[in-house]
Design brief:
Length: 270
């Protein structure tokens, strides 16, 4: 099941992150400006990495949180798709193209099918395996400090509150975000934000570092992929908005904190 998810996510990485200016002909809907598909592609690329780790994992609790938060993400994306289905190409000509692009049409039906099925399949995958989690630290296992878990919980609650506000009222993000959004893309960004918030909230309830160590590099990969391609779309950024710099600072700060935590936990394991 994990490898099937990887196979679904890799084309999204290639198209959205690698070819952000080609969404009219290759994706389920035309996404502008380019910074939005780059953001989405970074998230999908990190998701592909995570599900490779799910496939390789020997102990369920090491990936449990990521699987459950992925199911939540898929459910929110399904709701978002139905709320904005008129924005999708649905096999028709659009954006000045004379004929319906074949790949974009395939992408639309693929997108719709994936998000109709994946919340329930991934959720079932989590439920089916959750009985394998001992829920207690093994003897000698490295533990995450209560202060770190409290900080993660605070960040998670903030992310979930922001995501909930934008999902209900996307204009809140459209008016303040660091680059141009539509109601559809605002809700998509909120879905990614909710996934991160849910993941860190669940992690904050688990003291075992073994439950954290797969999601930490997953987040770092998403943060790392974003600036690699965002430089080409820097002109899309509204540098006059405080939220732009706040968002970038939050990403950088989160990455530095996770790197420091990972190093500290490795030293503790030794």
């Amino acid at each position: 099941m994990a490898l099937v998810v990887v196979a679904v996510l890799l084309p999204a990485l290639v198209i959205l992150w690698g070819l952000p200016g080609e969404t009219a002909g290759l994706w389920a809907w035309t996404i502008k400006p380019e910074l939005t598909p780059i953001f989405m592609g970074a998230g999908y690329g990190a998701g592909a990495y995570f599900f490779v780790r799910v496939y390789l994992a020997k102990r369920w609790h090491e990936v449990s949180v990521g699987v459950l938060s992925a199911a939540l993400f898929a459910l929110l994306m399904l709701i978002t798709t139905f709320l904005h289905v008129e924005k999708f190409n649905q096999g028709r000509a659009h954006d000045g193209l004379p004929d319906p692009p074949a790949l974009a049409t395939i992408a639309f039906y693929g997108w719709t099918s994936v998000y109709i099925l994946s919340p329930w399949i991934v959720g079932w995958l989590w439920w089916r395996n959750q009985r394998r989690d001992p829920r207690e630290p093994a003897g000698g296992e490295v533990l995450v400090a209560p202060a770190v878990r409290a900080a993660a919980r605070g960040m998670a609650c903030g992310a979930l509150v922001v995501a909930a506000i934008v999902l209900v009222a996307p204009s809140a993000a459209i008016d303040t975000w660091g680059w141009d959004l539509t109601p559809l893309t605002a809700r998509v960004v909120a879905c990614f934000t909710a996934q991160v918030g849910a993941g860190f909230l669940l992690l904050s309830l688990d003291p075992r570092w073994s439950s954290w160590r797969v999601l930490a590099p997953t987040f770092l990969l998403a943060v790392g992929l974003l600036p690699l391609r965002a430089a080409r779309a820097w002109g899309d950024v509204d540098q006059g908005r405080v939220l732009t710099w706040g968002y970038l600072a939050a990403l950088a700060g989160g990455a530095v904190a996770l790197l420091a935590l990972s190093r500290s936990m490795r030293l503790g394991a030794r």
